[in-house]
Amino acid sequence: MALSILDAATRELTLFAAIFLAIGGVDDCIIDALFLFASIAGRTGRRQLTGGRPGTLAEQRFAVFVPAWDESAVIAPMLRSMICRWGDGPYRIYVGTYPNDPATIAAVLSLEADSSRVRLVIGARPGPTTKADCLNALWAALERDEAAEGNDFTAVVLHDAEDVVHPQELAVYAGWIGTHGAVQLPVTPLCQPGSRLVSGHYLDEFAQSHGATLLVRQMLGAGLPLAGVGCAIRCDVLRRIAEVRGMPFDATSLTEDYELGLSLRALGTRCAFVRVPERPGGPPVAVRAYFPATISAAVRQKARWMAGIALAGWDRTGWARPWDLGDHWMRMRDRRVTLAMPVLAIAYAALVCWGLSVACHALTGSPAPVQDRVLERLVALNLLLLGWRLVMRTALVTHLHGWREGCWAVPRMVVGNIIGLLAARRALWIYVGLLAGGPLRWDKTAHQFPSGAFDPQSVVA
After folding, report:
1. Over the Cα atoms of the chain, what is R_g?
2. How many Å apart are CA 195 and CA 394, to the nearest integer?
3. Ranges 12-26, 246-260, 357-371, 447-461, most confident
4. CA angle 127, 134, 70 (to 5 degrees)
5. Distance between terminal CA atoms of the chain?
6. Residue 436's CB: how many other CB atoms inside 10 A?
7. Residue 41: count of CB within 10 angstroms of its CB
8. Count of alpha carbons within 13 Å of 74, Cβ hemisphere only?
9. What is the pLDDT of residues 266-308, one digit of tens each?
10. How many CB atoms lie within 10 A of CB 415?
11. Residues 6+ apart with CB under 8 A from 257
12. Cis? peptide before 128, omega within 30° of 0
C-alpha cells in the first residue's frame, strides 16, 4: 500500500514538474535561437567604440555616484583604483555615506584630501535606508554643485563600492550618451579565491544574461533593466523623472536600478546595452567585481533581487503597453521565478521519490510501475532541453572566461539552483513583510576589493 502511494506521488510530481520545466525550457531555447540567429546576422546590438564622434569624451562631464553603507574595508582602494584607471578624465566622484557610519566617512575623507575629484556626501538620515535614498542624496549634492559652479554634468554614472572600473568605460559612455538616454555596460563577475562554486556561479549567470539575454532584449526593443553599476544616465532624463516623483531614484524600491530601466522606456527614452571589445578580439569593456563567496551571502543578495523584481516589482511596474509583445515577454521572464523555484523544488522532490521507488521495488522484488508514453516523452523533452541549456551555458562561459571556467558551468548550475531555492523562501518573507508595512532596508552583503587593481592599463581577470 505504502509503495503504491509512493509510486503515485512520484508520477504526479514528475508530471507536474515536467510540464512546467518544459515550458520554461522552450522559453529559454527561443531566447538562445534568437541570439544565435542575430549573432550570425550581425544584429545583436554589439557596438563599436568608433560609434561616437571624435573627441566626444572631452566634451562630456560625468558625475560618478557611489552609494556606500558600511564600506570602510573597500571604499578607499576602490576610489584609488578608479582615479588611477580614469586619470584626468572629465568626471567627479560623489560618495554617499551615512552619519552613523564614521568608519566609511573616515575612509572617504582620507582620499578626499588627496584628490579634488572625490566629493563626500553625508546623508541626513541614519543608515541603512535604501540604496535609492542614498542616490537621491547624491543627486541633491550634484544639483547644488551645478548651481554654484554654473557648469552642468552630462550624465550620472552608477557604481558600487566594490567595483573595478574599466579604463575605457568613460570613452564608451561618451560615444553613446549623446544619442541615448542611458548606456549599460556588461557586468563580469570575478571568482573569489576558495569559492569556485558559489562565487563562480555568478560568472555563469552573467555570461548568460549579459552575454546573450540582454542582447536579445535589445533586439526586440523591450525595456532594458539597468544593473545599477556600469551604467550612465543622462542628467536631463533624470530631471524628467524627478519632475514626476520629486527625485530621480525611487527610495521605496528594493531594486531601483531595474525599475529605472523600465521607467526610461516608459518615457520613450532610447537605452543601449553596449558590448565593445577593449582591443580587437579582446574581452568587452565591462565592470568587474567580486560577488558573494558564501551560500548565506548569495542567498541574501538573490533574495533581495527576487523580492524586488519578481514580487514587489510586479506590483509596482505592472506590464507594458497592450500590444508591446516583446516587452510583455521579457517582463514575464523577469517574474517567472515566482513559479520556477516551486517547480524546481517539486522536480527535486520527484527525483528523490523516483530513487526511493526504484530502491523499494528492488528490495521487495515487485515490478516497477509502467510509465505512460506522455510522461516518458515529457521527460525526454526535458532532458533534451536541459542538455541544450548546459551546452549553451558552457559555450557562453567558455567564450568569456576560458575553457577552465566553462568546465565548471555544469556543476555550478546545481549550486545556483540550490541558492535560488533558498533565496526564494527568503524573498517571500521579505515581500510579506513589505505588504505588512515593514520598513525598507538596504540588505547588502559584505564586499571585498581585489588587490592589484591599480594599473590603469590592466584588467583584473
Report:
1. 24
2. 19
3. 12-26
4. 45
5. 58
6. 7
7. 9
8. 22
9. 888 889 999 999 988 889 999 999 999 999 999 999 999 898 8
10. 18
11. 158, 225, 226, 227, 228, 231
12. yes
Per-residue pLDDT at 113: 65
Evaluate if pTM is beyond 0.70: yes
What distance in Å separates the CA atoms of residue 415 and residue 180, rounded to the nearest whole number? 38
- 60-119 pLDDT, tens per residue? 899 999 999 999 999 999 999 999 999 988 999 999 999 999 999 999 998 866 678 999
CB atoms within 10 A of CB 40: 9
- What would the grid cell of residue 370 be? 509502467
In the chain, the amino acid numbered 428 is L
Q: What's the chain's average pLDDT?
A: 88
How is residue 85 annotated by DSSP? H
Whose grid coordinates read 527561443? Answer: 30
pLDDT confidence bin for 456, thresholds 50/70/90: low
Q: Are 210 and 186 in contact, with CB atoms under 8 Å apart?
A: yes
Number of H helices, E strands in the chain: 16, 9
Contact status, residue 277 vs residue 284, Cβ threshold 8 Å: yes
What cell does 77 get?
582602494
How big is the chain, counted in residues? 461
Grid cell in block for residue 212: 546573450
According to DSSP, the residues that pair with 156 across neighbouring strands are 63, 233
